[in-house]
Specification:
mainly alpha
Length: about 190
């Protein structure tokens, strides 16, 4: 188990949110096998980045050009024939109904995104996330969904190997925010040693 002091040291911007999330984070880490200092450091650094250090459990929606890719383009041929087609990300996320991009935007501490991921997470956590996506904004569900995602993607093994780049790719699909994730990881390693 991590302490409030440790969590505040790793994520100083969390402030009062740290105390709110601490019991649920400890429970989720125990539930999903994130129980060694290496796994905890990797997990906390990733959710620290994804949630803005526990400040956001719902993706801000403008929509940006990147977020528009979450929405199916009904004017195009479906399914898209080329990977660069605007529909490809929506297709990969299982977003098949107008409005799915916004409805199933990133939620929880690891930003579960897309109809397919909401369905799988909901099934695993016994929550009807397709009907009530905002359930992932609740503290316990935000933490458990992050733990579920972590475990379901085999991230404990990558954390054990110390491969933060591979962990980031598996969470983000690329290396977006890698410098921040690595900075949080370095602090978490020191704090949890």
């Amino acid at each position: 188990m991590i302490t409030l002091q440790q969590l505040n040291s790793i994520m100083p911007n969390a402030r009062s949110k740290a105390g709110i999330f601490l019991p649920a984070l400890n429970a989720a880490m125990a539930e999903f096998g994130i129980t060694t200092p290496a796994r905890q450091a990797a997990f906390l650094s990733q959710i620290g980045h994804e949630s803005g250090q526990l400040l956001y459990v719902r993706e801000l929606w403008a929509p940006t050009a990147a977020q528009l890719r979450y929405e199916r383009d009904f004017s195009a041929t479906w399914p898209p024939r080329v990977r660069t087609d605007r529909n490809q990300l929506a297709y990969d996320l299982g977003n098949s109904v107008a409005g799915d991009g916004s409805r199933y935007r990133g939620r929880g501490l690891i930003q579960i995104t897309g109809r397919t991921n909401y369905a799988a997470c909901g099934k695993a956590l016994s929550l009807d996330l397709l009907a009530q996506p905002a359930l992932l904004e609740q503290t316990i569900n935000a933490c458990r969904s992050a733990g579920w995602f972590w475990q379901s993607r085999g991230l404990n093994a990558l954390a054990d190997a110390g491969d933060q780049v591979a962990v980031t790719r598996r969470i983000n699909g690329g290396t977006n925010g890698l410098a921040d994730r690595q900075a949080l990881f370095a602090v978490a390693q020191r704090v949890l040693a």
